[in-house]
Each structure stands twice: as C-alpha cells, then as structure tokens.
Amino acid sequence: LACCTGIDAAVRFALILPLALQLAAAQAGDLVATVTQAGRGPVADAVVAAVPVDAAIPAPTTPPSESVAQIDKQFVPYVIAVRAGTEIEFPNHDNIRHHVYSFSQAKRFELPLYAGTPAEPVLFETPGVVTLGCNIHDWMISYVYVTETPWFATSAASGTATIPALPPGRYRVRVWHPRMAAGEDEATREVVIAGDAPVAEQWQLRLTPDLRPRRAPIGGQQGYR
Ligand SMILES: [Cu+2]
Fold this sequence. Notes:
Blueprint: H1 2-26, E1 29-37, E2 41-42, E3 47-52, E4 65-67, E5 69-71, E6 74-76, E7 79-83, E8 86-89, E9 98-104, E10 107-114, E11 122-124, E12 128-134, E13 141-147, E14 151-154, E15 160-166, E16 169-176, E17 188-193, E18 199-205
Parallel strand pairs: 1-18, 4-8, 7-13
Antiparallel strand pairs: 1-2, 1-15, 3-14, 3-16, 5-6, 8-11, 9-10, 9-12, 12-13, 16-17
The structure holds copper (II) ion (CU).
C-alpha cells in the first residue's frame, strides 16, 4: 500500500509540476541587452549583471562549475562571467604545457606547468574581476568576472546579452568590458521588469584600443601565426 501511495504522490507531483513551472515562467521577463561602441558597432565579451533592488527575489540556480580552456595557446573564452561560489576547470587542449595564474585581488592562484586537466578545479568565491595569464605565453589573457548576483550574461558577437527569466522587480543593471574606458558606475542603470514581456536596453561603451596579439609571434616571419 505504501508503494501505491508513493506512486500516487509522484503522479500528482508530475501533474502539478508543469503547471507550477508555467506559472513561474509567466511571471518572469527576459532582459535583452545590446552593447555597442560608438561608430564601431556591436561589442562582444561584455558582461551584463542585474542586481535586484527590492528584497529577496527568488534566485535561479547557476551551474556549480564552468571551464576556461586553453586552445591553440589562447584562453577560451576570452571573458567568462560566473556567480561567486563557482568552480572553474582549466583544461589544456594543447600538446604543450601551460602555467595559469592570477594576481588579482578577487582570486590569487597558480596552476604550475601542466598538461591535460588539473585534478582540482579552482573556486571563485569573491566578486570582482580576475585576470588570467600564462607564465609561458605572455600574450595569453582572459578574464573571469565573478558576480554577486545569479542574473548575468555575456554579449555575443552580435553585441546581445540576454539574461533570461528575471522575476518582476527593480534591478540595478551594470555592464563591464575588459577595455571599457570609464568605470562600471557610468554603465549602471535601473531596469524594471514588470511582467513576462522582454525588456530591451542598449548600452554604448567607450573602449580603449584592442592591443592583444591574436597569435604567438614566430621568429623570422612577419606578423603572428
Ligand atoms: Cu601557456
């Protein structure tokens, strides 16, 4: 009999759950942020983060772990946003070794020369910007943007970053980019999510020139490979 009661409860749960999810989904709106640079079009790799102004809004879960790979002597992705408390793995897909480090205040760490994937991921607990480098390959650089909020997104090549399913309420929304000329404060504004309709917002950033070499220099050849 106990088993039948259990099944009954499971069936009822299965019937109620989709309805509950539907109701919850109906009361959440996407924030569609578009990030551009004056006269230069869309900006990729900008982080858009929304912090609720009003008291406790139910927070979505975020993935417990992410990864920043090394591919062809570059970090991939160039910018990653994670919520504080996320672990990041650093798989090395190259057939040479890398030595990943950060001197940033939000997270100092070092993964001495390694191939493959280090056994232990790195925990990012403190909100802030963490700059990653490689001791062997000076041009390798990437950024981990650690947020205090579960609502964030990173802009694609189109300049669009969509934060899905924000519960209704007021949010302080800020935009960050590794090359932004002004501080984040200048790119912060309040956004109201009123219901389930998407809210579109545009940011125009001033960026400093991109001086990153894209590839390793080769001796005796012009340019970079
Ligand atoms: Cu390296």
